[in-house]
Specification:
With about 60 residues, the chain is α+β, with helices and mostly antiparallel strands. It contains 1 helix and 3 strands; from the N terminus they run H-E-E-E. It has a domain of about 30 residues. A 3-stranded antiparallel beta sheet has the order 1-2-3, with no helix packed on it.
Length: about 60
Amino acid sequence: MSDGGKGSKPRPFSISHDEWSTRWDAIFGRDTERNDEGEVRVNKQGQLEQMVEGQWAPSQEQPK
């Protein structure tokens, strides 16, 4: 039965996943990095990270 729907296969990507991710972050402002020592963020995997010496490192803080 052909009803003109998209079907179950995903549409092809015309750009790489990394490029798509970069553009998503630029549009929605997610994971913007600042060099504030001690700043805490949640990474894309849902883990807490803390800025230590200019690098994001796993945080020892508990999620709130």
